[in-house]
Amino acid sequence: MAEPQSPLGANFVPGNHGNAAAGIGVTLRERKGLSVIQVTAWRDAIPAMLTAIGSATGLALQNKPGLGRVAGEKSVFGFAPGRYFVVSATPDLETRLRSVISPELGTIIDLTHGRTVIRVSGPRSEWVLSKLFAIDFSEHAFPIGSGRATLHHDIHANIQRIDDESFDLYVFRTFARSFWLTLGHAAEEVGYRVE
Amino acid sequence: MIIKCPYCGPRDVIEFIYQGDATRTRPEPASDDRAAWNAYVYDRTNPSGSHSEYWLHSGGCRQHLLVTRDVSTHAISSVVFARDAAVSAKSGELA
């Protein structure tokens, strides 16, 4: 299969940027080679859908707003009632989900080629992201594994907290380069590294 | 103004789109009562104080919400999913 092109293109410049002399506040990476699948449960099938996602991925969730889990390259999180992102580095993720999710449970949409995934990590990640999104990034309000849907101006973003200082941002592929530049500007103050 | 979405929690109004007055009742689709349709489409009571209205959380969970808001103070007294409100209204009719 053809290798997907990153939409970040020439704007992905590895190395240290901004006020890096004072230390690296955040590190920005593009996560590649992922399958990104949106799963939507019918209104009455949410508990059964969560069981099915658990059996396909090993990541079982409770039915509560914004809950999610992370295990290595795999992650699952909710961002709306009955709607989940299921992400894995295995190319057969969609096939595995389809084998356990019947049309009676809900629908599956492969977003792999529609989203760009940016990982923001480092001690100043909460600070930098708070400049862009009007949500609370502190760990008590945004626990590890959980997901949020919000926007930066008109660019939608699904955000999952990976650990105490890392977040994955899922943005529309066609807006990814613009968002990447904005993210770099926001991170200049604290110094950032692109890997 | 901050609207407390039942799924996403408190979010700035910039994430929401106003979807109009929630107190209107749509006439039966087969109705040819022109006055009723005219009232549904155009007539608004423009109250001061508490008002029931639909908002779409377009920048978040993309759910339609039924918001009770005081239009003179912007104080919000209730936010529920519009579909839950519609289901309970319908079951009230059936009961």
From TrEMBL, chain A:
Gene3D superfamilies: Heterotetrameric sarcosine oxidase, Probable tRNA modification gtpase trme, domain 1
Coiled coil: none
Source species, domain of life: Bacteria
InterPro entries tied to this protein: SoxG, TrmE/GcvT-like
Name of a matching Pfam family: SoxG
Protein name: Sarcosine oxidase subunit gamma
Provenance organism: Phyllobacterium brassicacearum
TrEMBL record, chain B:
GO biological process, one term: tetrahydrofolate metabolic process
GO molecular function: sarcosine oxidase activity
Cited InterPro entries: SoxD, SoxD_sf
Protein name, UniProt field: Sarcosine oxidase subunit delta
Annotated organism of origin: Phyllobacterium brassicacearum
Lineage: Bacteria, Pseudomonadati, Pseudomonadota, Alphaproteobacteria, Hyphomicrobiales
